[in-house]
Structure formats: C-alpha cells, structure tokens
Amino acid sequence: MRVLGLEQSAIAFALINVFLAASYQLPIHGGVFALSGVAFMAIGAYASALLTTRFDIHPIVALAAAGALPAAVALLLSLPLARLGGLYLALSTLAFLVVVETVLLNAGFTGGAAGLYRIPRYVEMWHLVLAVLVLAYVARTVQRSRIGRAMVALRESNAVASTLGVYPALYRSTLFVVSGVLAGLSGAFYAHYVGVLTPQAFSFSLVVRALVMALLGGTSHWAGAFVGAVVVTLLPELLRPVREWRDVVFGGLLVALVLFAPRGIAGAIDWLVQQAGSTLTHLQLRPYRPLLYRLRPRVREVALDDPSGDGGAH
Length: 314
Hints:
Elements: E1 2-3, E2 6-7, H1 8-29, H2 37-53, H3 59-81, H4 86-106, H5 125-143, H6 146-156, H7 158-163, H8 168-194, H9 204-217, H10 224-238, H11 246-260, H12 264-285, H13 289-294
Helix pairs in contact: 1-5, 1-8, 1-9, 1-10, 2-3, 2-4, 2-8, 3-8, 9-10
C-alpha cells in the first residue's frame, strides 16, 4: 500500500524514528550530550519481544515494560555519570551501547546473533500516528512550561541554572530517564511492527542516523525530532528515481541544510514564520499611519521674542 507515493512501511519507520530522534534531542536540548538512545531502544525492543513471545504477556503490559525497564537502567546509569559532561559523557554512553550489543550477541535468552523471530506484529499504522500525536502534544507543552525554560537555562550554564532554582543533577538524571523511556518505546514499536530482532539492527550506524535526525531537525525546537525523522527517513525513498545519484543528492542536501539552517529545519521554519508575521503586521499598520499623523495635535509656532503668542499682530 502506498501513501502519497511512499510505501506504508517507510512512513511507519519514519514514525518509529520520531521516538528515537526525540530520545537524542531531549538530552541535547538540556545540555546533556548522551548517545545511549540506541542501547535503550535495544533493551526496550528485546524486553517487549521476550515478554510477548515467551511469557505470553499482553501487548499493553509489554509496551509499558519496554518503557519502564530502560528508564530503570537509565536511572542507575545516571548516578555514576551525573558529573560527566561533553565528550566524556558521550564516550561513556557509547561504551554502554557496546556492552548492550555484546550481551545481545552472546546471551542465550536473546537468541544470540540469530536474534528473535516470530514476534507478534501488534503495531499498526494508526497506533504509530496516535503515539506520535500524543508525543507532539507533550513535547510542545513541556517546552512552553517552566520545565522547558529550566532546560534552556541548564543548557546555557549550570551556574545560571542554579541561581534560578534549577537543580542540575536532578534535571540531568530526569532527562536521561525520559530519554530511556522514549527510546524503549521506539524499540517496542519496531519489534512488534517488523516481527524480527537481531543485534545488528542496533549498531553504531543507527546512533549516527539518530543524531542526524535530531541535529538536522533542530535541538532547540520541540518539533525538531519530528521533522528530522521524517526528512532523514523519507527523503531517500523520494530519491529512488535517481538511484545512482541518490546518496550524492541526499548528502548534498544535508550539507546545504547544515550550512544555511544551523538551527535545524524546525528552527528555520519557526524563524521564517516569525519574520512573515512581523512583516504582515508592519504592512497592516502602514495604511493607518498617515491618519495617525493627521490626528496629531498641531502646535502653533510662536516667536521667542513674542510673549503674547499672537505673532506680533495688534
């Protein structure tokens, strides 16, 4: 089935990638450069798949577990990593991904390198659309709330955030946990949409892809993850007619967007909307300016040497 010239599966993967991109965008927006989203996605995917295939757990319960288990792991991981930042935090979270990938490859209950098969395919398109709409509402509400302003202050400076009553360690741990929930949900959606899981699906290349989604969409705007996931996932599909040059065209477009839209696509769109609104307001006020000037009270010119103010007439 094709929708707007695109395969339905491509649109479904774009919606799933929204949650993965959001799991990277949210910590970066708060100044936490963590790269563990793919590891949490793998944990959520395997947790949900094992619960439904081997224990016959209801899909809703398995979905909740796919969000809760990565959140618990993220909370435990945030305790030793709370004081790290920048490159050191990024390397530590990448090391955690290597640990998770090693466990998936060697543990017996995960199926090893062969992975898991015959996973129930419960997830349908309308499930993904509804989940993305709920996530969009929550992301928009949070960014415009006190929590969103605290995240901006935390990204700019820990000292400034502390003076505003923000506890950096608490907020960093919270961002880490929420990132784990989002990534775990994306893993559960992926497992029950595809029906097959292998450790190779959660490699470092997926980390790079998720980072491109978050950065290209824009980390400072709530819609950045949504726009980035849709563009990075669907643009290669739209470029299928030029198969030989698809990678070249896609890479060139990415470079152009980075150069001319450093705030991301969502940030650029938001800036254009603001400029258009200010221009429209300016044009709407221009016809009334002459009238405003005509309604201004006229001040009669009086000579400085004529205190009577009658212009010297007698």
